[in-house]
Automatic annotation (TrEMBL):
Cited Pfam families: Pyr_redox_2, Pyr_redox_dim, Rhodanese
Entries under SMART domains matching the protein: RHOD
Protein family: Belongs to the class-III pyridine nucleotide-disulfide oxidoreductase family.
Designated name of the protein: FAD-dependent pyridine nucleotide-disulfide oxidoreductase
Organism encoding this protein: Pseudodesulfovibrio aespoeensis (strain ATCC 700646 / DSM 10631 / Aspo-2)
Length: 569
């Protein structure tokens, strides 16, 4: 029987659900409404339009075959009726009606529905700061924002920019300003690191160092108190510690799900916003579906509700909803939380839980860090990749993997490999033996993921005991009191410059000669072992353990991690 489906929201999930349903039930009617004039655009591409990597804003709203996804496109190509500049004001569940209002004229009317889809998305979080409405202060929400920001830059109006927030959008916008336009860019973040809770302090410090080398300044642990201006335009940002000059300010403090309509209609909504849905993407009313940035879904590792606003997830959920509107049985079980963000020539990516998030969720977890080449050591275009794995101690279950590496596909490919199986609760042993495609131009014979799991195995067994670069930094800061013996296990040619810079504090015995020079190693204080990546120092640790040395620490990631972290030796 023919149905009338009403979709509230026309950016990502709404169009996907509408078009999927129409393919399955071409005889039914779909009406999609949106309060904006802009629909079906790729919001995640906005920073790349601002940077100039995407040449025209129009490209954010086109298909892969260059058709603009506008009202006419949906009507003629997809068979979906679209009403832009139309706001949904109330959902009447009893009579199955949506009350709407024309944004331009104010005229109100009613749409009857058989099934309803709520795809209202999310809105940038406002900080309610003095000066937040000054010209030059923007959020990054839609192509209009992007066009306004880029026009200001291209006209030469922006020499200094301040980004508030060091999450996905904040970092992407910082790169856009600094890299493509040469704008003096600062990022203010209230927490102590970039990408808080998503990556460890060690990986965050590596990413920060790389961005600072590309001209971005960071101010962590600072709270913005006011945005000030002259003649109605922004000129500076005031934090609790300093004042930063600014011709442009980007507020990138996260987003808030738009769920007022759902709450007012009596649907189950999270205390902090967001519509609860089941695995079929149904709300607490079986005739109403919701998804995308306005929905709360299940985290497949913690089992808890989670808000994860990603365009990729909205599209997948949209297909599920479209299928189920047509009587299907498609499921969206939940998320493991996968991400990647490009940072100049590098990227930061992850899936599952960071150590901080795992501990907060009640897991008895440990993390291990590995630096290894992303392909065969003899292949000329190899690069070092840094990966961190979070493991539950008692069960050996892998809870997450995060990484810092090049902006190519190598690292995100490893993250995606873990993401694909994380919902099935893989153990360290599963990742140790995970089958990866191998050829020297693409991987090493023992892939970096396999090696990472092997490191975790050795740590859980207690035969590789160590610290990451952040732990090494704490030990190195105490070097003047002589509490630790720092032993470089590399060849003398590699260790020489550090011996010269740190006489009496940095020591060198190549791992291959350690057995014959054991007498040089003190037994009355901790020995901190260092090599290039942590492999030879691990072998040295085995030797010293065998010889009865009681307190030996291996630096995971070795000198490669120390350099990336930014420790000055």
């Amino acid at each position: 029987m023919s149905q009338h489906i009403v979709v509230i929201g026309g950016v990502a999930l709404g169009p996907k659900a509408a078009c999927r349903f129409k393919r399955l039930e071409p005889g039914s009617k779909v009406t999609m409404i949106d309060q904006s004039a802009l629909i079906s655009y790729g919001g995640c591409g906005i920073p790349y339009y601002v940077s100039g990597e995407v040449s025209e804003a129009r490209e954010l709203s086109t298909t892969s075959f260059h058709m603009v996804r506008d009202v006419e496109f949906f009507k003629e190509v997809k068979g979906v009726d679209v009403r832009t500049l139309t706001r949904a004001t109330r959902i009447d569940r009893e009579n199955k009606q949506v009350h709407i209002q024309d944004v331009t004229s104010g005229v109100t009317s009613v749409l009857d529905y058989d099934k309803l889809v709520i795809a209202t998305g999310a809105t940038p979080r406002r900080l309610n700061l003095p000066g937040e409405d000054l010209a030059g202060v923007s959020s990054v929400c839609n192509p209009d924002d992007a066009t306004r920001i880029r026009e200001g830059i291209s006209k030469g109006e922006v020499g200094k920019a301040v980004i508030i927030g060091a999450g996905f959008i904040g970092l992407e916008m910082a790169e856009a300003f600094a890299d493509m336009w040469g704008v003096e860019t600062s990022v203010v973040e209230i927490t102590g690191q970039l990408m808080p809770r998503l990556v460890s302090p060690a990986l965050a410090a590596m990413a920060r160092k790389h961005m600072e080398e590309n001209g971005v300044e960071f101010y962590f642990g600072e709270s913005v108190k006011a945005i000030e201006g002259e003649d109605g335009r922004v000129t500076r940002v005031v934090t609790d510690k300093r004042t930063l000059e600014a011709d442009a300010v980007i507020i990138a403090a996260g987003v808030v799900p738009i769920s007022d309509l759902a709450r007012d209609a009596g649907l189950a909504v999270h205390d902090r916003g967001g519509v609860f849905v089941d695995e079929f993407m149904r709300t607490s009313d079986p005739d109403i579906y919701a998804g995308g940035d306005c929905a709360i879904v299940k985290h497949l590792i913690t089992g808890q509700p989670v808000f994860l606003p990603l365009g990729s997830m909205a599209n997948r959920q949209g297909r599920v909803i479209g299928t189920n509107l047509a009587g299907g049985d498609a499921r969206f079980d939940g998320v493991v939380g996968s991400f990647v963000v490009k940072l100049f020539e590098t990227s930061l990516a992850g899936t599952g839980l960071s150590l901080e998030a795992a501990l907060a969720a009640g897991f008895d977890a440990v993390s291990v860090l590995l630096v290894q080449l992303d392909r065969a050591h003899f292949y000329p275009t190899k690069e070092l990749m840094t990966l961190e794995m979070i493991v539950e101690k008692t069960t050996r279950r892998v809870l997450g993997v995060q990484g810092f590496g090049s902006s190519g596909d190598a690292m995100v490919g490893r993250i995606n490999a873990v993401a694909a199986i994380l919902r099935h609760q893989p153990t360290v042993d599963d990742i140790s033996n995970l089958e990866m495609a191998y050829a020297p131009p693409f991987a090493s014979a023992m892939d970096v993921l396999n090696s990472l799991a092997n490191l975790a195995d050795n740590v859980l067994l207690g035969i590789n005991r160590g610290v990451g670069p952040d732990g090494f930094a704490e030990l190195w800061d105490q070097r003047d009191n002589g509490s630790c013996y720092f032993l470089d296990c590399r060849e003398e040619a590699d260790a020489g410059e550090y011996l010269a810079r740190n006489p009496g504090q940095w020591h060198n015995i190549p791992q291959g000669k350690l057995r014959e020079r054991l007498a040089e190693v003190p037994r009355d204080r901790p020995v901190v072992l260092v090599c290039n990546t942590g492999a030879r120092s691990y072998e040295a640790q085995i030797i010293l353990d065998e010889q009865g040395f009681g307190n030996v620490v291996n630096v995971q990631g070795g000198m490669a991690a120390i350099r990336k972290y930014g420790i000055d030796l």
